[in-house]
Design goal:
The chain is α+β, with helices and mostly antiparallel strands and 637 residues long. A hairpin with an 8-residue loop joins strand 22 and strand 23. The chain is elongated and about 135 Å long.
Length: 637
């Protein structure tokens, strides 16, 4: 069983303790209790590991010495001396009491403590610095500071005053030697001494404040009955902002010059630590404010994002496109489908093939693709491939050099070169000759052009948007159009519906063209109700272009109000006009014509019969089975 011999206050106590860990400190729960105020409540511990015993410092404020040297962790051997403050603890063996010069190792008064000098003082300040640096928040840091001041000085109590309220110093923290908060702190210290130190910037030390002539008229000194008092100025950035007030109400002469010098160094360290803690907490507040603002911003963005998604979902459910295309007029289901497809097409730079009957607005769609796409700031050029001979078309597309052919009196850049980094719209590509199809394919594959009659090759970067009113896939099957060129042009496809399939757009188109062809300064002409009805009933084989020309005619021929008598004869006759042998409109494909007539009459029969298919079939003169087949065939179910 290990033995510990404690010498303290001229008293020797022997402890025989059989434990794996022996706690030494000022706490009443310690296995070996130390009375010296410089001992921490849990100062050090001796641990047994097999046959070896280890001394471990528990982060004490004044350190643990083994045979005169400060240690954090060390092995013990028989006869070793452990110093805790002025107490001496021997392991297993101790020198006889007569061999110990207590007067050399202990203070003359048991209650008055003296600070060691030299290396011990420096080591103590280093430990205090480590403790101060371990805490970044102000309130716990102030408690650490005052606890160190009390323990190092041997004071009974300590007060830290950092500000004044209405002329009276205000205590920020007050603690006693048991590291407990002092009750009624503001009335437990001498405010006059603190004020004196703050005004002069000089420390005050008195061995007996009650009898000190400097404080005879100070009521607080007599009320507190303080004996030993030390008050040190607290400085930050050269300014006195408070004071550290220490006292002992029971003993006189506790504080001397050694204590004052050491504690002034400690107070200076504490002031720097407080400044650092204030800056740290200020940064924390700023960071918290920024974090709160970020959270609010994230919440706002998230909320707006959800609202945007909801709006887009509603638009999609309603069949509305995301983009805005003011140059394209149409709210019908068929046109909303086209515009939703445009939303995706305009975001790319891939070639686009636009299909649809003549007059459906293919060039308008091409311009929208360019205007809303990534090349919007660059050139948009167009060419009708059906309007030129091969020689002229090749020259228009690729350019020519001087003397390449008769009339070529100077070099000319082609549309490919002029549209470099922009968009080139090729209308009616189905009418190209096989030879021109081959040359166009080579340019698209290589990304380069060679002017007619020239030898140099020029690199170009052009987005191709092409259009055709013919079924290119059918021409490919009939070997009238190159398959490789077809797939090169048709990376993306936009199919425009004829006007007869989106008649609900006719009123909006009519109003648009009326405004367009009304002369500046004149008001838009009114229109009779039967005119709108006739315009809506007609199938418009020439599509939007035919409607535009009809409105232009109406504006030119009418007076203040547009009446039915200014309409073209075939428009007045409506759908029957397509069977008029004197009709001067272009010859149309019979299969398309039959489909148009059947669609028109089926729609009318269903409308009249209120969607009763049996009655509709009777009116059409066909069986209900035949009607159903035609509905399925034309996708009208």
């Amino acid at each position: 069983m290990p033995r510990y011999i404690l010498d303290e206050k001229d008293t020797r106590t022997v402890f025989d303790i059989e434990k794996g860990a022996v706690l030494v400190g000022r706490s009443a729960e310690s296995d070996i209790s130390i009375l010296d105020l410089r001992a921490s409540r849990e100062h050090c511990r001796v641990e047994q590991h097999g046959e070896q015993f280890l001394l471990i410092d528990l982060g004490s404020q004044n350190g643990t010495k083994l045979n005169g040297h400060l240690v954090d962790r060390a092995a013990l051997k028989i006869g070793d001396e452990i110093a805790v403050g002025n107490a001496r603890l021997y392991f297993e063996e101790a020198p006889p009491p007569d061999d110990i010069e207590f007067r050399d190792t202990m203070v003359t008064s048991p209650e008055a403590l003296q600070l060691d000098s030299g290396s011990d003082r420096l080591a103590r300040l280093q430990r205090v610095t480590m403790a101060l640096n371990s805490e970044l928040h102000l309130d716990p840091l102030l408690r650490i500071i005052i606890d160190h001041l009390v323990e190092v000085s041997g004071a009974e109590r300590g007060f830290l005053v950092l500000s004044q309220v209405q002329g009276r110093p205000q205590v920020r923290v007050a603690r006693n030697f048991e590291q407990e908060d002092v009750e009624d702190a503001d009335a437990s210290f001498s405010a006059s001494i603190v004020a004196r130190v703050q005004d002069t910037g000089e420390p005050v030390v008195t061995a007996n404040a009650v009898e000190d002539a400097r404080f005879q008229d100070t009521l607080s000194i007599n009320a507190i009955r303080a004996r030993s008092v030390m008050c040190l100025p607290f400085r930050q950035r050269g300014q006195v902002i408070g004071a550290a007030y220490l006292d002992n109400r029971l003993q006189m002469g506790v504080f001397g010059e050694a204590e004052k010098d050491t504690l002034m160094s400690l107070v200076d360290l504490a002031a720097a630590a407080i400044e650092r803690a204030r800056l740290y907490e200020e940064n924390e507040r700023h960071l918290a404010e920024v974090e709160e603002l970020n959270k609010r911003l994230e919440l706002r963005v998230e909320t707006q994002g959800k609202e945007l998604v909801e709006v887009k979902d509603r638009l999609r459910s309603a069949g509305q496109p995301e983009g805005v295309y003011p140059q394209i007029i149409g709210e019908s289901k068929a046109m909303r489908k086209v515009l939703r497809l445009l939303d995706k097409v305009v975001k790319t730079e891939e070639p686009v093939l636009i299909t649809g009957e003549s007059g459906t607005g293919k060039e308008l769609i091409a311009r929208a693709i360019h205007a809303h796409g990534p090349r919007a700031r660059m050139a948009f050029l167009s060419e009708n491939c059906a309007a030129l001979t091969d020689t002229l078309l090749e020259s228009e597309l690729f350019g020519h050099v001087k003397g390449a052919f008769t009339g070529a009196d100077r070099d000319k850049k082609g549309l490919f070169e002029l549209a470099d980094k922009g968009t080139l719209f090729l209308d009616e590509v189905a009418d190209m000759s096989p030879d021109m199809q081959k040359k166009l394919l080579r340019s698209l594959q290589e990304g380069e052009v060679r002017p007619v009659g020239g030898k140099s090759i020029k690199k170009v970067n052009v987005r191709i948007v092409s259009a055709s009113n013919k079924k290119l896939d059918r021409l490919v099957r009939e070997a009238e159009f190159r398959e490789d060129l077809f797939y090169r042009l048709r990376v993306l496809t936009v199919d425009l519906p004829p006007l007869r399939e989106r008649k609900e757009d006719v009123p909006a188109l009519v109003d648009h063209f009326l405004k367009l062809y009304t002369k500046p300064g004149q008001s838009v002409k009114a229109m009779d109700a039967d005119v709108r009805e006739l315009l809506g009933a007609y199938d418009w084989p020439g599509n939007v272009r035919e409607l535009e020309n009809e409105v232009k005619r109406m504006v030119a021929l009418s007076e203040e109000t547009i009446s039915a008598d200014v309409l073209s004869e075939h428009v007045r006759r409506g759908a029957r006009g397509i069977l008029d042998p004197d009709d001067d409109t272009p010859v149309r494909n019979l299969l398309e014509l039959v489909e148009q007539v059947e669609r028109h009459e089926i729609e009318k029969a269903l409308r009249v019969s209120k969607n009763n298919k049996t009655r509709a079939a009777d009116q059409l003169g066909i069986s209900r089975f035949t009607l159903q087949r035609k509905l399925d065939k034309y996708g009208m179910t």
